[in-house]
Amino acid sequence: MELLEDKICTRCNTELGNRVETQFLRAGPTGFFRWLAGIKGRDGLPPSPFYQGAGGTDPIYMIGKVPEWPFELLLELEPGTENVCPLRQIIFYHQLVGYRAVPILERFRKQPNMLNEHLREQGLQDAKAVHVFGTEEEIPWVQALIESLGQQPPKEWTSVVSRQQRMELVVTVNVTEPYFRAVAKIAFHYVLKMFPELTGLEREFDGIKEFIWQGGKASRFVIQRKDQFIANFKLGYRPTNWMHILAAERSGRNIRAFAQFFAGPHSLPLPYEVRIGRDPSRIYAPPRRYAHEYIVLEASADTRPKGVMQDAQPVSHILIPKR
Q: Which of 149, 172, 195 is the endpoint of a domain?
């Protein structure tokens, strides 16, 4: 992968990483696909996004109906696979709501009162615990958690669901402003890399830089498109590897960038359009466009190379959408 040099200081980049990139990498759609692809960092796999949110977001919730159970279950992915298993959870029954799966998150271990707060928020304060999913070593502390609600732990306890089958799943992810600031940062850095005559200090970029650094109204700069900007994707083709795709256009009036993360054989997440700012050049020039694929070849952080940067123009026919 190519590096952006002489455009941002190390201290600023580190501070921005702490502010905005933790959520981008560990939560929301990117966190989900990183876990699905089994992408490891320097310290191995990140914490499971199904038990722990990041940067102020909730964990990812994935729910599905297992035929032998009368209620829907919360599920988690085995990293690097499409295999799922039950999340650690308590099944509550409420006379009006019916059965409802409630995840038992790590923060409940040290703060058991948070489970009671969660039940009140969901309108389940009068619900009764009827079943528990978890491992044998988790039994003592989850039982104590249920007892903290003034209830007796249910006798029904399941550690695994072993039946192999295909399932339809609904995944709920949440993101906040820092997620879009991270998208804007990636796009802005790509523009500076592709157009090296730009320093990044031009006043036309004050708006995007202020948004990345301090926040603001995300929709002014980052838009999730409803269409694909790769012509081959529009025709029904799919990548053979997981990849991220970045593109930029400098039209003589405005500069835009496009970003799509974790496009893969079975997934085409919607791309983002990022409005970088007006073109600072005072001389009109024909539109210039660049696009690259960042192809994931190896998900492990222990193997080199992990991926390759490839010019996307000739192989994937980048289409810059009309304004």
A: 172
Contact 173, 33 (CB under 8 A): no
The per-residue pLDDT for range 281-297, each reduced to its tens digit, is 877 778 889 999 998 87
**307-311: strand order across its sheet:** 222-224, 272-278, 254-263, 243-250, 288-296, 307-311
Q: Which of 52-66, 170-184, 212-226, 304-318 has the lowest mean pLDDT?
A: 304-318
Q: Are residues 86 and 110 in the same domain?
A: yes
Question: Do 239 and 156 belong together in one domain?
Answer: no
DSSP state of 203: G
**167 and 238 belong to one structural domain:** no
Domain count, the chain: 2
Strand partners, 274: 222, 257
Judge if 147 and 180 occupy the same domain: no
Residues 6+ apart with CB under 8 A from 199: 7, 192
Residue 262 backbone class (left: φ over 0; alpha: ψ -120 to 50; beta: rest):
left
For residue 220 the two structure tokens come to 């002014």
Tens of pLDDT along 227-280? 988 888 888 888 888 999 999 999 878 999 999 999 988 888 999 999 999 999
One domain, residues 224 and 157: no
For 276, the domain range is: 10-24+175-316
The partner residues of 85 in beta bridges, in order of sequence, read: 76
Is residue 213 within 8 A of residue 185, CB to CB? The reply is no
End-to-end Cα separation, the chain, in angstroms:
30
Count CA atoms within 13 Å of residue 11 on its CB side.
0
pTM (2 decimals)?
A: 0.86
* Residue 144 maps to a domain: yes
Residues 80 and 159 in one domain: yes
